[in-house]
Amino acid sequence: MPPRVDAQRNLDAILAAAKEEFAARGVDVNVRAIAARAGVGTATLYRNFPLRSDLIAAVFRREIDACAAAAPQLAAAHEPDEALDRWLRRYTEFVATKHGLAAALHSGDPAFSALPAYFHEHLGPALRTLLRDAEAAGAVRGDVDPLDLLGAVANLCIPPPGSDDHSRAGRMVALLIDGLRYGAKGQVGSCRTPAVRTAGPDRTGRRLRRGPDSPGVPDRPS
């Protein structure tokens, strides 16, 4: 039986509040702050999520679902290369704001045991489809493994020691996205920068070639 409307509303509010508190203060934030942001009592929060790990896992699954669902929406609204770019940036935001999630996921808590498979089963196919469409459009190279790319983006989202600069992650991922275009068959649609282009001659008359202008990610299931 599906939950009552008010119970579902409380559940949605708790998950949304937990997402915001985790992003702002990390997964060890006081649950009272989550309950207050959600507009519910702590008893209601504990009734839905008796353990902190239950709440972390639920937020993580909800975020995975939202990120996966964004892939076909972006593909329908944009050219393949733009859809891939936008999705990778959305995924970057998802990963970069999960303070302390990596340590929690690797803590051995059984509440997290199913998350690696859930992560890869949902986000792997979503990214694979976007990569396939972008490759067919000649926008990116064709030798990119989607799970490797998910891991690479996650690694770039790890801030330097003592830093909390998440804008760095966006800059580094932008460079990675440019790298996907290197060696592509050709670029069409919204991508206006070829992977390798020919510049004007230098002073010797020769032609110059120039290029284009796991924090919270579970390990691959074995």
Automatic annotation (TrEMBL):
DNA-binding region of this protein: 30-49
Q: Name one Pfam family in it.
A: TetR_N
Q: Name one GO molecular function term.
A: DNA-binding transcription factor activity
Region Disordered, annotated ranges: 191-222
- InterPro entries reported for this sequence: Homeodomain-like_sf, HTH-type_TetR-like_transc_reg, HTH_TetR, Tet_transcr_reg_TetR-rel_C_sf, TetR_SbtR-like_C
Q: Which residues form the HTH tetR-type domain?
A: 8-67
Q: Which UniProt keywords apply?
A: DNA-binding, Transcription, Transcription regulation
Protein name from the UniProt record: Helix-turn-helix domain-containing protein
Organism name: Streptantibioticus silvisoli
